[in-house]
């Protein structure tokens, strides 16, 4: 499962780089007016359609199978995804504060070959990046979002 999730890292990282998308013209539908009526052949545009699903696959896949984080590149993907949003969608308008669940899962994770305790900074850094600019920083400092 981890191999499938880690294979999403290059395309997911590219989708989060707005400057690169603008430079390549991915977000500009009028760049080539002669191709406007044709179906899109650009993989980045097709990936944009499934970005939310990719996010959910990675967030929940790595949450429920933390042993898969031992694979090379998996922690990098986790770092990118946790910095994207404070809450993860569950169903319709229901969402959960994903960083709290990751913290609990990693605290209770036990393995003889892989130690997640050393990687807890990924959760804290992801939370800071996800809440920056959303008015949640003050709440976090008071312990309202993510208990110490």
Fold blueprint:
Elements: H1 2-6, H2 9-15, H3 18-24, H4 43-49, H5 51-64, H6 74-82, E1 87-91, E2 94-97, H7 98-108, H8 121-131, H9 137-141
Antiparallel strand pairs: 1-2
The secondary structure category is mainly alpha
Number of individual domains: 1
Strand order of the largest sheet: 1-2
The percent of residues in helical segments reads 40-55%
Give the uncertain stretches in residue-range form: 136-148
Task: State the separation between the terminal residues, measured CA to CA.
Answer: 31 Å
Total strands: the figure is 2
Rg over alpha carbons: 18 Å
Give a quick account of the main beta sheet: strands, pairing sense, barrel closure.
2 strands, antiparallel
Number of helices: 9
Elements, N to C (H/E): HHHHHHEEHHH
Q: What is the 3D shape?
A: elongated
What value does the average pLDDT take? 83
Strand content: 5-15%
Oligomer: single chain
């Amino acid at each position: 499962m981890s191999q499938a999730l880690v294979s999403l890292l290059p395309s997911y990282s590219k989708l989060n780089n707005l400057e690169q998308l603008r430079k390549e013209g991915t977000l500009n539908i009028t760049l080539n007016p002669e191709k406007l009526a044709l179906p899109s052949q650009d993989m980045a545009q097709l990936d944009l359609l499934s970005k939310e699903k990719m996010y959910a696959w990675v967030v929940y896949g790595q949450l429920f199978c933390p042993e898969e984080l031992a694979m090379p590149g998996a922690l990098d993907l986790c770092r990118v995804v946790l910095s994207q949003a404070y809450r993860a969608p569950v169903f319709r308008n229901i969402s959960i504060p994903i960083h709290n669940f990751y913290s609990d899962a990693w605290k209770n994770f036990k393995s003889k070959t892989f130690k997640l305790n050393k990687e807890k900074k990924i959760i804290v850094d992801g939370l800071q990046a996800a809440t920056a600019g959303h008015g949640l920083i003050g709440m976090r400092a008071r312990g309202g979002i993510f208990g110490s």
